[in-house]
Amino acid sequence: MNSTDKITAALLGVPWDGSSSYLPGAALAPPRIREALHCDSTNLWTENHTDLGAGGVLYDAGDLDLKVGGDPWSLIDEGAGALFDKGYRPVFLGGDHSVTHPLVRAAAARYPDLCLLHLDAHPDLYQDFGGDPRSNASPMARIMAEGLVRRLVQVGIRTANRAQRLQADRYGVEMIEMKDLTPGFRPCFEGPVYISLDLDVLDPAFAPGVSHPEPGGLSTREAIGLIQALEGDLVGADIVECNPLRDVNGLTALAGAKLLKELAARMKAGAG
C-alpha cells in the first residue's frame, strides 16, 4: 500500500442489502462500479484534470467482509473508521442505503461538526419501515436521532409523504424537493461535509438499475454539477443503491463510476 501522504481518496466496498425494503441486489454493486471505473471505454481522468490512475492518488481498500458474523453495523463502522484514522477521504460503494448510518457514525466520530448532503429521490426519514429501524428507508432518521450531524440538507427529493415531512420538521432537515431545485443551486457548508449519493436521485433515464426508480430526477450532468459546486471540506462520501440485477447495459454502474471520479477529484481539490 502506498503512503497516505500523497493519497487523498480511498475506495471501500460495503456489499450489504440485508436491509433493503423492496428489491435486493445492491450488495452486488461494488465490483460492477469498479468494473465500470476501469473499463477501457473511458479513463481515470476527472473533469478538473486529476489523474486518478496516477500513483498515490486513489487507494482501493477492497470490500468489507460482512459475512464473518457479528453485527454488520459494527463491522461497517469499524471498517470505515480504520480508513478515516489513516488519513484517507473515503468513497464507500454500497450496498443499500441503510449502510449510510454506520458510515456517517464513523465519520462523525472523527469530525464532530460534520454536515451531511443527501442526494436522493427519497427522504429516508421513516422512524422504522415495516418495523425495521435499520431499513434502507430509515438511515436519515437514525442519523438525526443520534445527533451525528450538525446539518442535513436533502436535494432531489420527490416522494416525501406526510410522515416523512413531519420527521423532517422534527429534526430540522433542510429538504430541497426536486420541484423546487433552481438551476445553478450551490450546496454551501462550513466545515467538514459528507455526501450520501443514492443513485435513484438520477432520473431512471440515466440510472435504470436501481431498486426504487422514481421519474423526474436529476440528470447525470446536474449531479456532477452539484458535486463540483460544493462549498465545504468534503471528507467522505457514499454511492448507494445501484442494483446490477436491474441495470441496462451497465449504465447505472457507469454513472456511479463517473460520480465516484468527481467525488474523488473534489476531495483532492478540497484537501489541497
The termini sit apart by 22 Å
**What is the 3D form?**
globular
Strand content: 15-25%
SSE string, helix = H, strand = E?
Answer: EHEHEHEHEHEEHEH
Give the integer mean of the pLDDT values: 94
Spans of at least 5 consecutive residues with low confidence: 1-5
Measured as a percent range, the helix fraction is 25-40%
Structural class: alpha/beta
Features of the shown structure:
single chain, 272 residues, alpha/beta, globular, disordered N terminus
Brief overview:
Helix content is 30%, strand content 20%. It has helices at residues 29-37, 72-85, 100-110, 139-145, 162-171, 220-229, 251-271; strands at residues 9-14, 58-63, 89-94, 115-119, 151-157, 174-177, 188-198, 231-240. Helix 1 links the parallel strand 1 (9-14) and strand 2.
Would you write up a description of this structure?
It is a single chain. By secondary structure, the protein is of the alpha/beta class. It is built from seven helices and eight strands. The chain has an eight-stranded parallel sheet. Helix 1 packs across helix 7 and helix 3 packs parallel to helix 4. The longest helix has 21 residues. The two termini are 22 Å apart. The N terminus is likely disordered.
Detail the topology: elements first, then pairings.
Layout: E1 9-14, H1 29-37, E2 58-63, H2 72-85, E3 89-94, H3 100-110, E4 115-119, H4 139-145, E5 151-157, H5 162-171, E6 174-177, E7 188-198, H6 220-229, E8 231-240, H7 251-271
Parallel strand pairs: 1-2, 1-3, 3-8, 4-5, 4-7, 5-6, 7-8
